[in-house]
Amino acid sequence: MTNPPGPANPGSRPSLRLIEQRSWKIKGELEPGPCNFCGSDRLIFYREENSFRIERCRDCGLIQVNPRPRSEELSGFYAQYFPENSAEEWLRVYRDQYQEDAELIERGCRGCGKKIFEVGAGYGFFLAEMTRRGWEAEGVDLSRPAVEYARERLGIEIQLGDFPATAVPEGKYDALAGSFVLEHIRDPAGMLKMMREMLNPGGILILRLPNHSLLKIYGWLGTAAELLPVGFLLRRIRAGTDPETVFNVLDPPAHLYGFTPGVLKEYLEKIGFVRVRVFNGRMHRRGTRINWLFDGLVYYMVEIIYLLSAGKVALAPALRVRAFKGG
User: Fold this and answer.
1) If we measure between CA atoms, which residue out of 213, 202, 216, 215 comes closest to residue 322?
2) How far apart are CA 164 and CA 189, in angstroms?
3) In a domain, 30, yes or no
4) What pLDDT band is residue 7 in, cutting at 50, 70 and 90?
């Protein structure tokens, strides 16, 4: 196994648009459906973004694009999700998060086995970190170039295919991970159920995802942007990422769901996870240095709120989730 490449210029901050494709022209018809978490038809209009209708479930509170792109449309898009030659930028952006998640798993998994599976493994950098720590690592991803990079450059065995359509034996792994995946897929409920089935009893689940509790505030700010200077300021801060979508709550079709800590925790407990904890998560390094410093300031402010509320209020732009498979 070779070492992953280091950043060519540590002083720079990559643009979000350099490391991922975020939009595409939908070719097929959209498909309506009930709430993905609870199956309710009691969905009400929430807002519209990028010409997509977003709804909120009255029963469980899940935010979701409805109607949504079909599964084959999503699979085709995510097969070309990573721009050409973006591996070094991807590692530069997410390196710290890989180490944080690895430490979270090892703290929660003392005494258990050391076999991990990652959904949406991409270039395999997180699994390479786990391998370095003595874990047996596998994963799945839709991008052929990313999978080939992981296999050839890092020696990580990643399956090429869709999840959960890719067959995986039940009760095989001690840890499951999914970083910024849940919001992208058509059936997050199905993904979480499959991940639970793949875990050994007492196995640990680690997730990262955007936090709708904070992002909805951006939506409120967008409503007042014409009257207040906040719009100009946020677009300047977000220069180098995607300033045109700074007030988007979901930014479909790349993101199809919005999760709050309470909604996600309740669902995980419903399907058999225990000791579910939701933490504030740092945003990945993106855009200009001003943007990076702004994200850091927001994180430390909301972390103070989290501590003062005894872990009950998580308002960071991103969430970290840790849960264990119940007996």
Assistant:
1) 202
2) 11
3) yes
4) very low
